[in-house]
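Anyone have C-alpha cells for Amidohydrolase? Sequence:
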Amino acid sequence: MKSALAIATVMLLAGTAAPAIAQQADPLAEVTAQGDRTARVAKQIWDWAELGYLETRSSGLLQDELDREGFKVKAGVAEIPTAFVAEWGKGGPVIAILAEFDALPGITQSTSSARDPLAEKLAGHACGHNLFGAGSLTAAIAVKRWLEKTGTPGRIRLYGTPAEEGGSGKVYMARAGLFNDVDVAINWHPSDENSGAAQTSLANRSAKFRFKGVSAHAAGAPERGRSALDGVEAMNMMANMMHEHTDMDTRIHYVITQGGSAPNVVPDFAESFYYVRHPDADEVRRLWTRLEAAARGAAMGTGTEVEWEIIHGNNPLLVNETLQKVMDAKLRSLGGVEYTAEERAWATEIAKSFGEKAEPLEDAAKIQPYAKSLGYGSTDVGDVSWTTPTVGLDTATWVPGTSAHSWQAVAASGSTIGFKGAQLAAKAMTLMAAELFTNPDLRAAARAEFDASRGPDYEYVSLLGDRDPPLDYRK
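Reply: yep, here.
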C-alpha cells in the first residue's frame, strides 16, 4: 500500500494543483504587475556591466528595490561587500531565490543585431546575469506580495550572489552557512531555450599560476635571463599532454594573462589562468594534483620559480528530480516566449550570424523535453545544491542557437526578448515558490531525495579550501 507521502508526490508530478493554491490569489498577477520593473532593472544592470565582486551599483539597485518593498536586507554577508540576503515574512518554511548580476570581461556589444562592440565599455552581460538578477527580484517581490495578501505563513529570501563568473560567490555564502536553514532554493538562468529538465554540471577549480624569472636583454645577454614566459609555455605544453590522458568528461583550459611587454626583454614575470573541470569533484582534485606537478616541473626545467593562487572552485549540481519535475510542469503550464513582429525581424538578423548553427525562431516558444543529462558548464549554484534542495530552470532570453558568452547573448540580454525571458522565469519561480509554501508533502519528498542523494555521512566541503573571497580577481 502506498504511503500518503508517495500518493501526494505522484499527484504533484502528474500536474495536480494543490487545493490551497487554487483557492488563493493568483500569484502570477503579481509578476505581471512588475513587467516594467523587470525591464528597467535588467536594462540598468546591463548598462553598468560590472565585473565580479565589483558590482556595487548593481547589487545596490537590487537592495534598494527590496528595501522599498519591505524586505529586511542584510548586506556584506560572507565577507563580500556586494553579497546580500533580503528576507520578508515569518514562521513557516524558508524558500530562497538566487540572484546574480556580474558581467564578463573582454566582450561588449550594443543591442544591435549586427556586431557592434562598444569601445567605452570593458565588459558585457554575455551570460545574461542582468536578466538573472532582475527576474529573481521580480519573483521574490511577487511571492512576498502573494504571501502578504493570502496570509500564508513562511519566509521568502532573495540571495544576492556576486561573482558567479569565476569568483564562486555562492560558495563563500554556502561555506558561511547562509543556506543552512533554507527548505528549498530556486534559481534560473538565461538561455536560448526553455527547459525545466534535470541537468547536472561539472565541478571545477581554477588558479592563477605565477612564474618568476630573471630579466635581461634578449639579444645582448640572453644567458643572464630566465624567462618566466618559458615557464608558462612549458606548463601549457605539459598540461596539454596531460589532457590527452584523461577521461572524456575532463575539461582543461587556460589563458596567458601576462606574458611580458617587449620581445627584446626577457620577462621576469608571467601568469596563466587555468580551469579544470569534471563531473566528479574528487576527480577534479586528482587532476589538480597532476596540474600542480606540471607547474613545478615547468619551473624546474626553465630555471624559474612558480606559485599559484586558487581563485574559485565549484561542486557539481546535485539534481533533485522531485523538484525538477514539478518545475517542468509549471513551465509547461506557462508556455515559452512569443516574439512580436519587430522582435522576430531583429532575431532573424541575429540568427543569420550563426550560419549553419541557426535554430528555428519558433523554438523560443517551445518547452524542451524533460530529461536528466550532464551539462558541461559549471556554476556555483552547485555548492548551494549540496547544502539545501535546489531547483532551477532556463528560459529563452536569447535567440535560438545563441551561445552563452557571445556578443549575440550580450545584445539579446539588453533587449525586449531578454526581458520577456526574465518575466517568464519570474512566473515559473513564483509558481514554484507558491507550491512549496503550501505543499508540505512536496517539501518532505524533496528533502528525502536530497538526503538519500548526499548519503548518511555527507559533509559539505568546498573546492576552495579556507581561502578568503578573491575580491580583486577582476581588477
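Residues 140 and 158 are 6 Å apart (CA to CA).
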